[in-house]
Amino acid sequence: MKILLTLPSPDLAATDFLRSGNVVHDPSADSAPDDRLLDALLLHGATALIATRRPDDALLRTWAQHTAGPVHVAYAVPAGSGTGTARELPPRAHPVHPVHEFPLDGTGLDAIATALAHCERAAALARPVPAGAAPEAGGPRDVFLIGAGVVNLVTALHLADNGYRVTVVDRSPAPGTAGWEAYGCTHAGDDARMFTFTEMDNYGNQDFHGDAPDWFRHSVEKHGWLARDPETLTPQEQAWIDEFEAIPSWLARTYNADIFSLSAEAGREWTALRARFPRLFEDVVLTDDILRVYSDPAHLRASLGRHRVIGAVLRELSPADLAREHPALAAAARGGTLAGGILVPGFTVNVHKFTQRAIELLTDLGGRFHWDTTVTGVRRGPDGAVTGFDSAVPVPEHAHVVASPGVHGAELLRGTPCEGLIHGVLGGWMRARNHTPALRNSLKVARRGHVTEDANVTVARDGDGREVLIVGSGYGYTGAAGEPDERQLTAMRAGVADTIERLFPDGDEPAASSHPHEGYGFKYCVRPWTTTSLGLYHCEPLGPDGSLYVVTGGHNTGGFAQSPAIARAVLASLRGETHPMHTLYHPERYPAFTGGAGPRPGATLRPLASRA
To answer: Distance between CA atoms of 444 and 457, rounded to whole angstroms?
Structure first.
């Protein structure tokens, strides 16, 4: 999509609005005659216009006739026109392609960002997504799921509960039978996961006047997010970092709003899941309501405003409130480590116990599991259509296939638009005793400027029944399939240990458990990330019977949090229905919008900072 922006805006030069490369600012065309404006639209190949006035119908008809699809026009509404807030008008009937109109309240940066977001979303929602045939219409009832992480387990549970026969395969051993290094993100990470309405977030720059985030260009020990020696990065990995930095602030805000909308759906689905399957949540140390605490007053104020916008504030707490109501944090609150906090809706669970319950429940519902079972590739015909899978366990005939590949399943993405989009960003874990006075609410900790500035502290029990705190923190880019640098792992471990010491100065690490695979000491898991912070949802036909190949993944830090919404999206596809995730997480959303204007894999813009 190419967008011609003619609104005169002296503030625009100080923003990153034009960073994506497909937004052209030509304020001289705003007051130009219609023939001059039409020339500018055709010259730039624009399919969207943002202007101070609505062009006349003749111009719109001529413009639409020169495009290969619908055109979009956003224009400022005169003050006092009575239109209220910006809204989309019905497409007007034109001979060739429809014209979508969108009135704007004003001409400032917020209005421009709203108009740009409207154009981008309109293009995303117009993209068709394949759908399967519903079982009642003769569609397949078997589903073969590749990957037994929490996302696919929750998906399998939804499918089994809706009459599908499910088979789950995973290349790792059965959970709990090997050391943590043998597993993917769910089972390699420690026994803690959290749901909040902002758990999955956008990590790009959302400040209109801010700079492109360069965290991936600096090592963890330098307070960056790079866990590799920069000299070992491939051109594709450097291009991935370039693309992360290229996304402008208005688009990052758009993506963030879409992520939060799906998290809101996930919140409703979690409530329904708890009511439908209470057995899932038995003996998993389910802890409701999350306490967010901050070291920096400005960060606290900004976060409070952000959570108020989405209605996710239960209470504000001053340092005195923290000390009085949460005695485990009294020393940190009184000593100045914490500037205050916010109590928000959410919950935490011991995820290993949760997935054990899910596996038991799925088995009772007729689900089958195959561990130590690899799927090494997807076979395609000359036309690119999927013809089969290279699997150690045969895929049932006339079955849907749902893959949740994590970071190390690149072979499952070959030939899909997801190929090359998922890279790894690790996080570290440590444990501490939950001493008396014990912490009762799990925490999200924000320490601006710290080597591990964001941390989750989960109230849990270990395999011996002792109350512990599981502290997860840190971001460390490992790339497409690279291994982290030991020096950066050491820096991350020191950062997590410092967070424990600052929050709980009288605490210490618990002794090793009698359970040999529980993973005491420092460990890490590698999370599947994307440059946009959006998850990925891909769907393509698998056979003439209405069967589908579905890929879900790349959920950054929100796989567990959004898993029931992901499950609903998969169920909708298999039933021949639509779901917002099908378009909002479409893997071609960003490249289709930029039209190749932004950096893509294989390109490099500037060298990465050295580790030294």
So the answer is: 6
